[in-house]
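--- STAGE predict ---
source: upstream dedup step, 1 unique chain passed
mode: sequence only
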Amino acid sequence: MNLGRRVNLSTILGLIVLAIFVGQSTASLGDHLPDFRECVQVCKTENCQNGNSVLPLHHRLLLWTCPAECDYTCQHVITDRRVSRDPPMLNPVVQYHGKWPFRRVLGMQEPFSVLFSFLNLAAHLHGMSRIQDSIPSWHSLRPYYMMFGYIGLSSWTFSMLFHTRDFPITEKLDYWAAGASVMYGLYLAVIRILRLDLETPQYRPTLRRLWTGICIVLYIMHVCYLTFWSWDYTYNMAANVVVGIIQNVLWTGFSIFRYQKYLKSWTAWPGMIVAWIILAMSLELLDFPHGMD
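--- STAGE serialize ---
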């Protein structure tokens, strides 16, 4: 049995390592612009003969290289050139490598995204401390709430790394962690609403194990699809939105039921939180290039 577990663990670790280097992605429109390609090539020829010595230290610490510096610089050169042309509607701002050409700060590619991810991480830390202070250790739901916090911490940590520097490994970790966070949110919603954390009646532990297995299988299938079939941003966003909507509907229905039962204002809090989450999700869905300068 122990040998089998070690073999399975080795297989899983091997797949994870392979997944880091495997994946399909679709290039953005900006990547194909002849002006952009020519700019990058000229920049490399003129500036990258002596390695990365021309870069500031804080850029090198964040693993910026001379070719990457040329790529970043040319994105903004071509973007400024396109925006200045008339009419502007025929020369819109385009994405490069799947991202808008934001202005970096201290070497961070998307500084505001890094800041907001940090604030979300801080909120999770605060929430976990509140749970530890207000919910006794014997309460059956406390481990589920704490696990939600731990998954959130990992998700926002990987988000900060990805928005600081976009590498294949940081992108994959960000996507995988975000998917885990959304999936666990749905898992927790069902556990809490149906009180599957309790051991009685006898059907609850069975349903809990079944629900746990379903969520794990769905998450593994999601990761495998992204990793071995197609690194599809649209699919990833759609999958997370669908799972998010389902849990939001569950929490909204739960809030309505509780309010009708107890007629207490505090029972409406989950519904209000859901409304804020939907507003936050809209910022992710309505992806636009404004505010880059």
